[in-house]
Amino acid sequence: MPEVKCSVANCHYWGEGNHCNADAIMVEIDEHWDKKLDEKIGGEYVDSDHQDHSARISKDTCCHTFKPKH
């Protein structure tokens, strides 16, 4: 898995040095931010069944892997 950097320190998967420690990363387009994900990979909810082609720039995307720390 590639090194994933994340500055969202209140995420459950955030690690020292701004490293994401999730087993899988799910990135979706913003218009699907509330999509319910049913499939799990490495304990993380993902969706392997569809593809979108509407993201033009990084601001058009969001991370579904985020989970607030408790």
UniProtKB/TrEMBL annotation:
Residue span(s) of domain DUF1540: 4-66
Superkingdom: Bacteria
InterPro entries the record matches: DUF1540
This protein's name: DUF1540 domain-containing protein
Organism: Paludifilum halophilum
Origin organism lineage: Bacteria, Bacillati, Bacillota, Bacilli, Bacillales
